[in-house]
């Protein structure tokens, strides 16, 4: 499934007002139950995997635990990012406070663990606009490829903030002045983070599975407006040809 930005995977106490969920939509399309294999944050779009049975979904869990699943994301970030690198920055475990339903979970939430976290990044393109969005006369942005090695909550958003290149549209870890600029200037009201590819071996047939998804109209239009049409096309074409 190519999950659109702003869609929850399933019901959550955090967004009680929401009435549409990826799990429900897929069940309606298939005419049967579906079981999420992994998750994407509500504001993140892209590849979302489901199993037709609970047993099938459980077969994929060891692959994620063993870090044998390669997930590739595209993001637009503030500033000019380095050409490439590995972010090795431990992250404190995060909990949904609204989802705490029992004393044991509450105690765990009071003493979060510090978890190792690693993210690879690669620069795809840069842009400089002659507009003073913040304190500088010109404003710089980057198109980057991100591959999380670990799977911590909000890892990509927190890691990019850590290296001072927050993802545009991130209300919690980004910078409001840039988010508002993209809303006004590009009519972009979403988090510019999308999962475009998931690669893994099928747990039963041991054959490679390469699942791809387009970044979406708003992401593509924003990237094109920043002059990254060729960079985006090149990146997506490279994924299509990947073994």
In short:
This protein has 243 residues and is of the alpha+beta class.
Describe the structure.
This protein is of the alpha+beta class and 243 residues long. It has one domain: Pseudouridine synthase (2-Layer Sandwich). The protein is 29% helix and 26% strand. It has seven helices and twelve strands. The strands form three sheets. Strands 1, 3, 5, 6, 9, 10, 11 and 12 form an eight-stranded mixed sheet that branches. It has a two-stranded antiparallel ribbon with strand order 2-4. The chain has a two-stranded antiparallel ribbon with strand order 7-8.
Determine the CATH superfamily: Pseudouridine synthase
Structural class: alpha+beta
Q: Indicate the mean pLDDT.
A: 89
- Count the DSSP helices: 7
Total strand segments = 12
Radius of gyration: 18 Å
CATH architecture assignment name = 2-Layer Sandwich
Helices and strands in order:
Layout (H helix, E strand, L loop, with lengths): L1 E2 L18 H9 L4 E2 L8 E3 L2 E2 L2 H12 L4 E9 L5 E5 L2 E2 L10 H8 L3 E2 L2 E12 L9 E10 L6 H8 L13 H11 L6 E9 L6 E5 L4 H9 L3 H13 L2
Parallel strand pairs: 3-11
Antiparallel strand pairs: 1-3, 2-4, 5-10, 5-11, 6-9, 7-8, 9-10, 11-12
Summary tags:
12 strands; two-stranded antiparallel sheet; globular; Pseudouridine synthase; 243 residues; eight-stranded mixed beta sheet
